Write the structure tokens for this entry.
Amino acid sequence: MALLKVSNIETYYGPVMAIKGVSLEVQPGQIAAILGANGAGKTTILKTISGVMEPQKGDVRFRDESVAHVEPHEIVRRGISHVPEGREVFHDLTVRENLMLGSYLRRDRSGIQRDLESVYGYFPVLRERGRQRAGSLSGGEQQMLAIARALMARPALLLMDEPSLGLSPLLVREIFGIIKRINEEQSTAILMVEQNARMALSLAHYGYILELGRIVMADTCANLMENEDVKEFYLGIKEQSVRDAKRWRRKKKWR
């Protein structure tokens, strides 16, 4: 049974339909990626799942229960955490205060302390910056804090919106490495929206291609990376370039 099942949802900004009959699934322990151009509706999908926006049509089911019209805080309580685009940490609060806000719905003090130590294990810099105001952190450190804060709710499903946005290539590799560890070590399912298609497809198990509010392609990431349209439009590889590269490798092999 799918952990998350989105069925034919339509969500509007005023009179404008942002997503049009979108359906997707995330299996337990799976990383799924949504790829698409700016304005395709990727962020709207995550906001609809997390309850920030309500679908006008369709359904969102988590653990086989509808959450389509449930308040965001209750969705967090049920096991979905959202790492929004742009981090959105509480700038005037300390790093530790931001982390503790992630656990505000929990009452298991010993469990909260264990999870705090766990996120420090993934992001040691946050322990060092514990008393520092979040607004004074670097962009990469704020992204780490946003992910760690979401983990403090102990989610079964983590929604991540553009985790690589504005980060250096080195930090992007570090963040994606930590995301992989979280998935493997905690069996946390992840639904990720990401502009860096190559990184997303190399990390995720299953992918969805979104265009103008509709899913136009869905397959395993291994298959998507071999799809010629995906290569050209999302990975920047044209078929002629692929043929030239293969020809070059053959020539080099026989020298």
